[in-house]
Amino acid sequence: MSAAAPFSRDRLPLVFILTTLVIDAMGIGLILPVMPELIRDVEGGSLTEAALWGGILATGFAVMQFLFGPVLGALSDAFGRRPVLLISLAVMAGNYLVMALTGSIWILLAARILGGILAATHATAMAFVADISSPEQKAPRFALTHAAYGAGFVIGPLIGGLLGSYGPRAPFLAAAALALANLALGALVLPETVRDANRRRVSWLRANPFGAIAHIGRLPGLGRLLAVLAIYEFALCVYPAIWAYYTPLRFGWDTPMVGLSLALFGVGFTIVQALLVGRFLRLLGENGTILFGLGFEVILLAVLGLQGSGTAALIIAPVSALGSVAVPALQAVMSKRVRDDAQGMLQGVVTSTISLATVLAPLVMTQVFWFSTREAAAFHLPGAAFLLASALLAGGVLLYLSRGRNAAPH
């Protein structure tokens, strides 16, 4: 299937979900460049101290995603993808408004916790794509969803960086407007893909994250693949966790420059997912693509951790996206190992696995950044967190090399 095939007239539902992901990513990307300024506006303190609060906010969001990801996945298997998506978008719009207006760090934390509970857009969208895709279409179409997300992430940080010049709260108001636009779009055009043939009753034993992960993890090979994905997400969390703090300290960047660098990564990510994943799959297969992506990230994270040039960092930003070819290949391998009526549960487990990794990752990465950059630090190494991420991901490569063989869906 060619890259253009998913956009033909008989595949309009896929176009709808891709558009949804573009707008959703724009909302997230808008707020990243100004989060440090918002925290300092609310709480005061230095940039390094703001990084600690940034880690706490990110962890609160991730904890809720971990706890509620399988619940929402199970609900979407039983009641449909459409209502889960629309309810999540409505709550997120209100969440952004609260963040824009609050003057309390605790209300800001509560808003991030609430946002994490219903941040099901990406996982449910993946289940939607699995519903409408044949086994051989899954990896290329998962790549397209990542490309759509990347396209929104290109636009979002650029606009967020520009809006940041009007104050740290302006991008949150724009994010609320985008979430409402996304909600209206979904209400008008998003079809339902859950039918009697692929509907599954809610099992609360499996809907909780521990039960769901235990069930999925018992399927042949899936436990090891989920562990590799968790390590990958933990390591790559170094970017959102400290980038907005690391680059101003290391390179003297201002908010627009941080937004530009994030947009450059988004450009690279979109190109890789839209144009290169399919080529890698044809050339290397799913196994080779996963190994290439993981190994490439190990090298780039180490290089960035030792980097002292802001110009070089701008170049590395889009190039580093090449490692993202591993993710859709991993998702395709996992999706092929479960039945059609369990795709929502699988994506909920994937969401919880990623969230479990990112529960601790922001705290660890921001603490490493703080420890290696504070005034009393025994050594001054702003890139220490990137070096840690590289070492962890190298362990993930070794774990993947010991993986199990393919198995039939369960």
Structural commentary:
This protein has one domain (11-190, 204-401): Up-down Bundle (Growth Hormone, Chain: A), CATH 1.20.1250. It is an all-alpha fold. Helix content is 77%, strand content 0%. The model is unreliable at 1-10 and 406-410 (pLDDT under 50).
In short:
This protein has 410 residues and is an all-alpha fold.
Question: Any idea of the CATH class?
Answer: Mainly Alpha
Topology as a string of helices (H) and strands (E): HHHHHHHHHHHHHHHHH
CATH superfamily: MFS general substrate transporter like domains
- Please bin the fraction of helical residues: over 70%
Any idea what the CATH architecture is? Up-down Bundle
Q: Cα distance, first to last residue?
A: 27 Å
Which fold name corresponds to the CATH topology? Growth Hormone, Chain: A
| Count of strand segments | 0
Protein structure class: mainly alpha
Largest sheet: none
Number of domains: 1
**H/I helix tally:** 17
- Which residues form runs of ≥5 with pLDDT under 50? 1-10, 406-410
